[in-house]
Write a sequence for this structure.
């Protein structure tokens, strides 16, 4: 949410945009520190109880943010949000996969994780619009009200599942050593770092182009095309995960290149936002499905590791983007993004045998048959 309202937050709190951007960084740091230890500590909890605990934490964090009048308190609330966010992110993928038959697990994750992408895609421009028309605090207040409604809905409708027994839990080192897990984690880190370097500082990136008043519409373009990407991912993921991940890296690299070379043309800025949305919309589902397939019985811990890498990318982007903005200026943000994506694409292409493989359902079915 802060990505769409950095200017308003910084002005109201009396700090620079780079300082306000650290509200994204500390959220990510909370998730980094909490995802693995909290997931391991609560792996025996019943899933619905854990889900409600995490969602309630968001309600508290966003309420504090809405009323905060200092950067220190805002950052503390965002850190708390990151802690429960890291736990929630690791929980959701396994939760969705347990609800459906094996041949629908990729599609189930695409549907479930679409929520996160819709939040980024539609919520951020909506927040930017609210911040421009009313005030940024109201956006966080509205999210608190929505969260309370969500808690009631989860209690009433979401099925419950048991946690893992103590004997079924695998050591953390076993998860790291599982073939395919390491390259997926590295790709997650670099892909998210590249994306968020642009995303967090999209407002200062557009300002020198004379598009400061179009941040919400550029983000809306990104968001609407992201919804198309979610749909395509849900249709194709169970058969073409590898192709989709290669395409995501290539499309985001192309968008960064267009922003670097043709940023003076507003139509091409919108075109790059569309390519960006097409690349990012299904990315979380692709990465989570890939690591769930690779990790097997260690899936919950692997998801926590992926969450850690995802949020490390977010945190690093806040710092790297802030330094770049201050030292080199906003045009350099897209060049850094492009530089990060080229090795990321190479790693995805290289992880053919383990990690980003094709026809994930057939591989999963075959392994179950062999067992």
């Amino acid at each position: 949410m802060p990505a769409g309202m950095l200017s308003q937050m910084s002005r109201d709190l009396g700090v620079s945009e780079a300082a306000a951007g650290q509200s994204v960084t500390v959220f990510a740091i909370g998730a980094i520190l909490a995802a693995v230890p909290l997931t391991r500590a609560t792996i025996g909890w019943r899933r619905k109880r854990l889900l409600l605990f995490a969602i309630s934490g968001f309600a508290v964090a966003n309420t504090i943010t809405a009323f905060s009048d200092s950067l220190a308190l805002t950052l503390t609330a965002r850190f708390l949000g990151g802690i429960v966010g890291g736990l929630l992110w690791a929980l959701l993928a396994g939760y969705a996969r347990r609800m459906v038959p094996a041949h629908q697990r990729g599609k189930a994750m695409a549907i479930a994780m679409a929520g996160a992408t819709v939040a980024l895609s539609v919520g951020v421009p909506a927040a930017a619009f609210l911040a421009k028309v009313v005030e940024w605090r109201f956006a966080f207040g509205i999210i608190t009200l929505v969260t309370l409604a969500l808690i009631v809905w989860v209690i009433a409708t979401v099925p419950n599942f048991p946690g893992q027994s103590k004997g079924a839990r695998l050591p953390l080192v076993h998860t790291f050593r599982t073939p395919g897990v390491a390259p997926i984690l590295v790709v997650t880190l670099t892909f998210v770092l590249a994306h968020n370097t642009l995303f967090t500082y999209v407002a200062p990136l557009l300002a020198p182009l004379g598009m400061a008043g179009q941040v919400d519409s550029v983000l809306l373009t990104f968001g609407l095309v992201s919804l198309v990407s979610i749909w395509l991912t849900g249709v194709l993921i169970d058969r073409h995960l590898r192709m989709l991940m290669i395409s995501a890296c290539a499309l985001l690299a192309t968008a960064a290149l267009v922003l670097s070379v043709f940023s003076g043309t507003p139509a091409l800025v919108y075109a790059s936002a569309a390519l960006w949305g097409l690349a990012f919309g299904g990315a979380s589902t692709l990465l989570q499905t890939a690591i769930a397939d690779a990790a097997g019985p260690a899936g919950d811990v692997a998801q926590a590791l992926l969450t850690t890498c995802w949020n490390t990318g977010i945190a690093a982007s806040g710092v790297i983007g802030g330094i770049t903005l201050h030292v080199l200026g906003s045009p350099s943000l897209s060049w850094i993004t492009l530089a990060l994506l080229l090795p990321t694409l190479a790693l995805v292409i290289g992880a053919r045998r383990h990690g980003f493989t094709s026809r994930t359902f057939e591989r999963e079915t075959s392994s179950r048959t062999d067992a």
